Amino acid sequence: MLSKASLQANPGHVTMLKWMQIISALFSFLMPALLFSKAQTEDWFSFIQTKLPRKSWSLLLAIPVLVSLYPLILRIGKWNEGLHFGAADKILRDMEAQAAMLTEVFLDVHSIAGLIGNIIIVGLIAALTEEFFFRGTLQNVLQIWLKNPHIAIWTTAILFSFLHMQFLGFFPRMLMGAVLGYTYYWTKSIWPSVIMHFVNNSTQVIDYYISQQNKHTQWFDDHANTSIPMLISWTAAATVLIYGLYRNRVKWE
Hints:
This protein is mostly helical. The protein has one domain (about 5-245). It is built from 10 helices and no strands. Helix 3 (about 55-80) packs across helix 8 (about 190-215), helix 5 (about 110-145) runs antiparallel to helix 8 and helix 7 (about 170-185) packs antiparallel against helix 8. The N and C termini lie far apart (about 50 Å). The model has no long low-confidence stretch (mean pLDDT about 90).
């Protein structure tokens, strides 16, 4: 098992990890999505719904929806971390510690160029490839097969969270997956969910970079215990914004 010290002592290994991340994203998520779309529609993108949403303001609304959900997601994450998983608890926590270590080494850069590189890999590439696969393809297929968008959305969200293999954050990631799924379904466009996913990942990359530069705890760690009144206020705001997406939903044919 790789240690943090050994990776930090060999920058080439970290570079290799980043290239492996890019290649994995492209061949595990993007290529299957594009090939499936081509097979189904004779077009590389049509099945995924890559046209801009009919109501362009939904692209902008995706960001405040995400931000207003953060207190709830962070609170659920704190609760999830405290769960005990019986005989598998130590194994899962060891897996989580290893994943956290790799993430820290991955994000540990000391220049703007390094930060931009991480935003491209963790923010842009991950958001684009995962949304094309999970929402644009898997959720779409399940919706057609099951004739029930809600089951398709939540099944995809569960699989999305499960395949990250970080079970101490399973429930907040599942909730995020469901929000991405409903955003995709209501707008009938992949781009609002891509933007939401990109902003979520990128803010965490930037937060880690700033915390390392200024030697303080990350914003997400500091705000995981938002007061109940603030939690209710932010969740109410998120509900109103999500209802706005729902009220202006685009019907699927």
